[in-house]
Amino acid sequence: MYHILICDDEQDICRALRIYLSDPSYTVHEAHTGKEALCLLEKTEIHLILLDIMMPEMDGITAMVRIREKSNIPIILLTAKGEDADKILGLDLGADDYVTKPFNPAEVVARVRSQLRRYMQLGAGRLPPQVYEVCGLTLDERAKQASLDGEALALTPTEYDILRLLITNPGQVFSPKEIYRHIRGDGFCTENTIAVHIRHLREKIEIEPSSPRYLKMVWGQGYKIEKGNKA
To answer: Of 20, 122, 216, 224, which is least surrounded by CB within 10 A?
Structure first.
């Protein structure tokens, strides 16, 4: 699975890009300022960034220069018509490509695929794993199957998506709204909606759902799966 970061201060653009990139091979993350993007990169392995130029706090060009000090991951700039000077400056400073607003969905997807393919073929990136395992709990992306100690689990699509999000981001806490946004593409839900799915998922993966070994709740923050957790 590839982790893609969308960094844009306009919520509607982030929402549209999430829809364009709705693919089982992608996990999409969001940031709304350059500073937020840099913070997220410190704690999450990202394979490609869609980066807006004009943002508050820290603009995209400044953020890109900071990113290039540590990483060569593909960066596609999000630009508006008439920002030709910014496009040229961005490419000179290390951007790999750009797309112009308003977006053509097919073009966005094609450019993302092209940059990921080029990045991996050149050996600059490490191909993300397709099998994830935490102390006997396994998720196989190729077979779209989860298992516990070798026994296949009968998960609903939503339960599978939640497990995939948590097990591919070990140790990271996701709030109920973040979980819903990752698996459904928007942030509109109640905490009870996700809590019900979490409860059903625990009943299938935990020996004692009331004392979970894998799927932990961080009080007041959300849920996580700790890598290697045996507690």
So the answer is: 122
Q: Which CATH architecture has domain 2-121?
A: 3-Layer(aba) Sandwich (3.40)
- Give the list of residues 6+ apart from residue 27 with CB closer than 8 angstroms, or none: 1, 2, 3, 4, 164, 165, 168, 169, 182
Domain ranges of the chain: 2-121, 131-225
Q: Where on the phi/psi map is residue 192: left (φ > 0), alpha (ψ -120 to 50), or beta?
A: alpha
Least confident of 111-115, 120-124, 144-148, 154-158: 120-124
CA atoms within 13 A on the CB side of 225: 27
**Tens-digit pLDDT profile for residues 133-152:** 888 899 998 788 999 999 99
What's the CATH class of domain 131-225? mainly alpha
Torsion angle in degrees (nearest 10) through CA of 176, 12, 100, 117: 20
Please give the C-alpha separations between residue 34 and each of 47, 53, 66, 125, 231, in angstroms, as whole numbers.
Answer: 17, 9, 10, 23, 37
Buried b (16+ CB within 10 A) or exposed e, 57-71: ebbbbbbbebbeeee
- Global pTM value: 0.58
* Cis upstream peptide for 102 (omega within 30°): yes
